[in-house]
Amino acid sequence: MEHVDVIIIGAGAAGLMCAATAGYRGRNVLVLDNAKQAGKKILISGGGRCNFTNQKVEPANFLCRNSHFVKSALARYRSSDFIDLVDRHGIEYHERDHGQLFCNDSAKEIVSMLLTECEWAGATIKLRTEIGKVSKNADGLFEVHTDKAQYTCQSLVIATGGLSMPKLGASPFGYHIAEQFGLQVLPTHAGLVPFTWHSEQKQRFESLSGIALPSTITAKDGTQFSEALLFTHRGLSGPAILQISNYWKPGEAISINLLPGKDARCEIEKLLNNSPKQSLRNALALWLPKRLVEALFDEALLNKALNQLVHAEREQLAVDLEAWSIVMNGTEGYRTAEVTLGGVDTDELSSKDMQSKKEPGLFFVGEVMDVSGWLGGFNFQWAWSSGVAAGQVA
Ligand code: FDA
Question: pLDDT digit string (tens) for 161-180?
Fold first, then answer.
């Protein structure tokens, strides 16, 4: 058996960050991953440009059963710390809406940066390595059996991520290790994920595929996001939908404001005064794509002139435009989800260093735990912050 100080299972965002941090402390670090390539999710993230963090990261941008858990790690390794690292490596980036930071060129630069940091810190990375049995021996060391070699280590860091995108190698490995050592794992489900139509909705709205428009979407619990809404063949997507999917439960309606920033009643009254003979169809086409107007409203209603609409019809119209209530069939699931909600219960871990309270020397970092961020670079920031927190102690 070969002995190392720290074994990190998972060469993704959190695992690589943790490896570099522990390596710089002089720890002998080995990173194991069964994939052919390190940081595969980083490479495809942000449309290939990796939204690597956000200018403004707050605990409120995260979902976790214990809402205080993220505070310590986020405060000790901030988005500004990661931006400094990106700057030191000469990676150029730009800011998009809502403070999101993306590489100008390619997500490959973030992976190269992390691999360079690991190399400088003296951490070894072994890919294409299948992990077998993991146990703790009588000397209090972890034993990790792989298809290539057997290792013992003082600290074991689980950085195997969540279940989203199984075709990229996502696996429940981390949950199984947690359960093996007696840690509770909270039920998981897909997050930051598009919604799918019921069959009758599909017939009505499928032809709208490709339409994108600004919206404000509200979940049943009152959580609200103002971002783009996109119609797809399968259902609804776009940033607003991905964000609200984190707060949605099966069977619940979402409420969509199709005229964000406008007062529908006021706008309808204004049009009625200025062009009373205009058809409702043409009036609505001033604000919304014509195909959407025709799919949403009854033909006979659309053919009416504005001055033919009775007060109740105008009221209903305002409600439909500002609070279109729709119950979606479900989500596209882990196949296309960006994150996994739920996971290793944070009550089992120290918020300072991500170490198991029950099993000293066992750490969990990144998405494997019950911490998920909003869309906008928050999930990577959690990977960086939690990876550093564990790397400073492991
Ligand atoms: P991550 O999934 O990155 O790494 C886990 C590693 O463990 C992988 O290398 C995997 O091969 C390895 N592994 C798994 N099972 C194993 C096993 N049994 N044995 C050995 N190794 C194993 N976030 C963000 O902030 N900005 C963005 O732009 C995006 N964009 C984005 C796009 C898409 C399409 C997806 C799917 C996700 C995003 N995300 C994102 C989310 C982000 O990618 C995610 O939260 C982080 O990668 C999580 O980092 P981890 O290191 O925890 O897991």
Answer: 999 999 999 999 999 999 99
